[in-house]
Amino acid sequence: MASRLLVYTRTTAYRHDSVPDAVAALRTLDPGGLAVDATEDPAALEAPLTPYAAVVFLSTSGEVLTDAGRSRLAAYIEAGGGFAGVHAAACTEYDWPYFGELLGARFTRHPVYQPGQVVVEDRAHPATAHLPARWDLTDEWYDFDTNPRATAHILLRADENSYEGGGMGTDHPLAWYREQGAGRVFYTALGHASPAYADPAFRTHLLGGLRWAAGLAHPAGA
User: I want to staple 148 with a disulfide (CB 3.0 to 4.6 A). Which of 33, 104, 160, 171 is the partner?
Assistant: First the structure.
């Protein structure tokens, strides 16, 4: 039986036009391996989450959880559940300190959507094993309120010399993974626009991160 993902796309602030294409892409990333239940209903996070291998916040924004949902999600992760955040997940639940600690950093700003280059720091992880040492793509290049390197294992960072308007300097993480309690947390800042979800390299990056968060894949040598 397929492992299930709960994909949450509620927004109370900015809403990305790419959300429908992103959900459609997740449904086809891993046929027979990861099944997707997509919702924007906060009540879904108040129900038991144990049927799911991971919860995915897919370009959520603003305050999207009830107090009961916050408690349920935190307990699920601390007990060993998986969590993945994609792009604007870092623009979510600013009023809940636990969520910022869980994700590792929060969004602050971005320059215009433009081409740039990603530096791949770790090619042993299933989210990055397919990538070259430098990866050219077009996206929003998120800046964060803190560098998550102290609490997370960095997979990708931005080369701010490759685009205009970067604000974090030479050490600018874009994707990482970490542990929270007994749980697994993966985050990628990439995935702003619909073309990303048709790009084989990005799709493989996303699938690797989701499978790791769901406990279905492991870094090489682990």
Answer: 104
Backbone phi, psi, residue 98, to 5°: -55, -40
Sign of CA dihedral 90, 92, 97, 98: negative
| 52-67 pLDDT tens trace | 999 999 999 999 999 9
Nearest to 34 by CA among 98, 169, 126, 111: 126
C-alpha 145/C-alpha 136 separation (Å) is 25
pLDDT (0 to 100) of residue 220: 77
Give the span between the Cα atoms of 96 and 89, in whole angstroms.
13
Q: Write out the two tokens for 118.
A: 């990603």
Element at 23 (helix H, strand E): helix 19-28
Distance CA 214, CA 185 (A): 9
pLDDT tens-digit series, residues 117-152? 999 999 999 999 999 999 999 999 999 999 999 999
